[in-house]
C-alpha cells in the first residue's frame, strides 16, 4: 500500500485528493499544543479520517545530529509526544514514530540506543516507532529496547533494505496532488490510526458482555459478510483489535473510552434500550 509523509497541513479537499490518488496513509507531525508550524491540527485530523486515510504519528524536534540523542532526551520527547497523542485522541496501541534524521554512523549508535531506552520507559500504552536509515534500524533491532514499529528511509542506506520495517520511505521531495511530500510503502501493519494491513475488516461490533451477543449477531447479519465481533475486557475497556475495523458499532456498555475514529453508538441504560437502539439503526 502507498502512503506519504509531509509537513503541509491537509484540508478536506487535499485529503480527499490524496485518497483518490491511491494513498492509504499519511504521516503527520505531533506538536500542536507546542505551536509547531508543521503540526497536525484537530481539524486536519478530522479531514484525514473523513477522507478514509489512516494516520502515522511522528514526533520530531531536532534529531539531526548525534549530540541530540540521550536517555534524558528520550524521556523528555516521549513525555511530550504522548501528551500530544492523548490530546488528539489517538487510541492506545497506535505507534508514535521518533526520528533519527541524519546519516548516523557506528559511533553514534550508543547515544541513539540510549535515547530509545528513554522513549521505551515513557511510552505507556502506545507503541514505540523508530524512523531512520538501514544502519539505525539494524542497530535498534538488536538492542535491549527494540522498537515495536520500524520506518526505514532509503536515505543514507546505501541501497540496503531493512527486512523488518513496517514502512519504507523510498522517495523524497515529490509533489502529489499539490502536496510536497515523501513517498512511503506500507509493508505491514505500521501502528497507524486506524490500523491498516492484513487484519482490517469493514465492520466491527463491540459488545459489553454475553447478553449483547444475540443482538450483535442480528446486527452482523443485517450488515453483511465482513463483520467482526469484539468483547470488552473485564474492566469494560475495549480491546486494541477494534482498530482493525473500518467502522465500529458499539452495542451495550458505556459509550466513553472507545476511541474509534468512525463509530456508531448503540447503547442504552438497559439491555432493552440497547436492543431498541440497534433496531432503530436498522430502520425498524
Sequence-ordered SSE layout with sheet pairings:
Blueprint: E1 2-5, H1 12-20, E2 23-29, H2 42-50, E3 54-59, H3 71-88, E4 95-99, H4 109-122, E5 127-132, H5 134-141, E6 149-153, E7 167-176, E8 179-186, E9 201-207, H6 213-223, E10 227-231, E11 245-251, E12 263-266, H7 271-281
Parallel strand pairs: 1-2, 2-3, 3-4, 4-5, 5-6, 6-7, 9-10, 9-11, 11-12
Antiparallel strand pairs: 1-8, 7-8
Helix pairs in contact: 1-2, 3-4
Describe this structure in words.
There is one protein chain. The protein is α/β, with parallel strands linked by helices. The protein folds into two domains: 185 residues, TIM Barrel (Alpha-Beta Barrel); 81 residues, Rossmann fold (3-Layer(aba) Sandwich), CATH 3.40.50. The chain is 28% helix and 26% strand. It has seven helices and twelve strands. The strands form two sheets. Strands 1-2-3-4-5-6-7-8 form an eight-stranded mixed beta barrel, surrounded by five helices. It has a four-stranded parallel sheet with strand order 10-9-11-12. Helix 3 packs across helix 4. It is globular, with a radius of gyration of 20 Å. The two termini are 39 Å apart. The mean pLDDT is 92.
Any descriptors?
28% helix; alpha/beta; four-stranded parallel β-sheet; 26% strand; 2 domains; globular; 284 residues; TIM Barrel
